[in-house]
């Protein structure tokens, strides 16, 4: 794996910095990373992991130091060893390969991805052709297509949706990758509905709540900022979508995968900078990247009860950040708490800490 650069170039800190809430780890990512950690404590190293457990090289490197071994395919795993499947999910043929090698499998697939897999199998069993909205080659898409390979047609945008051909226009269903842009996906689905008026779909939106909430927070942030920095990996779909959402709102935005990616020229003439991070970026990484943006000397924050004077853009508008609320699972101010009480996202709840059952691939 390529080396990471931790030195942030010198630049003049902007006068005002806003943090998005929620940001960073969602519960599905948190769950997958902890599954590897618990497997290492339970079975001892090495524990093999097929592909990156989540799309963040910093997380992968930390787990490697603890004894995880990341592989591209299962033929790199010794027979009978323990292997973890990543949060993005796998096709049934990968489970079959694991059985053939007598591997002990721990499946860390995000539950929301598993939901899409179940929907694909259900529609295929009913004789539907399935139009999957997603990005070609993404691991989640590969896994979903593998659930019903003869029935799935992949489209990446509205233009492809307008051209996709199916044998029976009366029996068509759609599914989506869980980490897409909400607005862009809505346009693709509208195109499909115009072509196939009886288009079937999932009972609830496939785009996960954590993805939606982070995109909504970025929209609120964009109204206050001239520049938004998104902390995340180049191969992280949800992080790249946050950049697109910010730019669609007319705000300059850049993806930061490592410290050296920061360009001091971005801050010229910028009074307010927003910071968010993708669902696969840990909170410590967000703090490390955001710390240099703080002015070297700043007045003591005004206190109002237990709330510090740090602004946060939330799905319900600007709010003040309470102590300890930097993470997706922490205590929040009433504006954020209201959102969580009304319809909590995976990014706003503490995930289950138990390790999935270990056994032969199923």
Structural account:
This protein is α/β, with parallel strands linked by helices and 362 residues long. The protein has three domains: 151 residues, 4-hydroxy-3-methylbut-2-enyl diphosphate reductase, catalytic domain (Cobalt-precorrin-4 Transmethylase, domain 1, 3-Layer(aba) Sandwich), CATH 3.40.1010.20; 83 residues, 3-Layer(aba) Sandwich (Rossmann fold), CATH 3.40.50; 84 residues, 4-hydroxy-3-methylbut-2-enyl diphosphate reductase, catalytic domain (Cobalt-precorrin-4 Transmethylase, domain 1, 3-Layer(aba) Sandwich), CATH 3.40.1010. 33% of the residues lie in helices and 17% in strands. It is built from eleven helices and 14 strands. Helix 8 runs parallel beside helix 9. About 17% of the residues have low confidence.
Quickly list its features:
Rossmann fold, Cobalt-precorrin-4 Transmethylase, domain 1, 362 residues, six-stranded mixed β-sheet, five-stranded mixed β-sheet, 33% helix, alpha/beta, single chain
């Amino acid at each position: 794996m390529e080396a990471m650069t931790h030195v942030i170039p010198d630049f003049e800190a902007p006068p005002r910095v806003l943090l998005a809430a929620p940001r960073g780890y969602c519960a599905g990512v948190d769950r997958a990373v902890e599954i590897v950690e618990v497997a290492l404590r339970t079975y001892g190293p090495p524990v093999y992991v097929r592909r990156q457990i989540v799309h963040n090289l910093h997380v992968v490197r930390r787990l490697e130091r603890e004894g995880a071994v990341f592989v591209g395919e299962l033929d790199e795993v010794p027979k009978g060893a323990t292997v973890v499947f990543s949060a993005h999910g796998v096709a049934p043929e990968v489970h079959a390969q694991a059985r053939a090698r007598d591997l002990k499998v721990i499946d860390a697939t995000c539950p929301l991805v598993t939901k899409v897999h179940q929907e694909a199998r259900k529609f295929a069993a009913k004789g539907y052709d399935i139009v999957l909205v997603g990005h070609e080659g993404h691991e989640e898409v590969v896994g979903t297509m593998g659930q019903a390979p003869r029935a799935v047609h992949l489209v990446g945008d509205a233009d492809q949706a307008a051209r996709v051909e199916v044998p029976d226009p009366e029996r068509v269903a759609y599914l989506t990758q869980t980490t897409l842009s909400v607005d862009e996906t809505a346009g693709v689905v509208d195109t499909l509905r115009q072509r196939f008026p009886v288009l079937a779909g999932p009972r609830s939106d496939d785009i996960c709540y954590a993805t939606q909430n982070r995109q909504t927070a970025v929209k609120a942030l964009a109204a206050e900022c001239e520049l938004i920095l998104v902390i995340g990996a180049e191969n992280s779909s949800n992080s790249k979508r946050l950049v697109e959402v910010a730019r669609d709102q007319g705000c300059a935005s850049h993806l930061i995968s490592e410290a050296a990616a920061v360009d001091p020229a971005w801050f010229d003439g910028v009074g307010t900078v927003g910071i968010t991070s993708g669902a696969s970026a840990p909170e410590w990484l967000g703090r490390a990247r955001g710390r240099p943006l703080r002015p070297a000397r700043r007045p003591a924050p005004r206190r109002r009860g237990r709330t510090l004077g740090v602004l946060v853009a939330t799905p319900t508008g600007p709010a003040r950040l309470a102590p300890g609320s930097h993470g997706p699972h922490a205590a929040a101010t009433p504006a954020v708490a209201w959102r969580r009480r009304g319809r909590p996202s995976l990014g706003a709840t503490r995930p289950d800490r138990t390790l999935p059952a270990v056994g032969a691939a199923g």
